Amino acid sequence: MTAETGPEQEAAPDRTDESVDRDSPETESLESLRTERDEALAARQRAMADFSNFQRRSAENEARARVQGMAEVVRNLVPALDQFEMALGQSTAGGDADGLVEGLRLVKDGFLQALERNGVRQIDPEVGAEFDPTRHEAMMRQGAEGVAPGHVSMVAQTGWELDGIIIRPAKVAVAPSDDEPGAGEGA
H helices of the chain, where? Predict the structure, then answer.
């Protein structure tokens, strides 16, 4: 022991700047864990990027499908619009009311065909058909000869459905039962 150094300093072994030996099993285990962590973080980042790309592509596909669907509807309606133009051209040229009415009937038929090609169907119940609250809207109670109570006595406006989804129910009058007050009056 020298006078300048105390007993503690002499007892300490001579070490380099690193406190752990690079070849020790603890160091290898620590490096292995770091590598696994880095791989897991990279995999997470890739998964997050993949999910973000999936969301973006899904939104783009949805928008594209909506536009394509609308384009198909428009393609089917354009011929009916052409028929309107022809009917309007007839009305000014000849003044024939019967020709105009026939032209308008053709336009209506063209529209109905275009709607049917796109999955739209009319809800047009027959007088005497049973009232169906899922497809019909009762506008009033009105009796009709030969129509049983709770059945359609008059169709005020046809309804529409698209692939089973009711766009607008048919507006109907329903025959009241004999004991209901106000039979034949508006509901």
Answer: 7-11, 25-93, 97-117
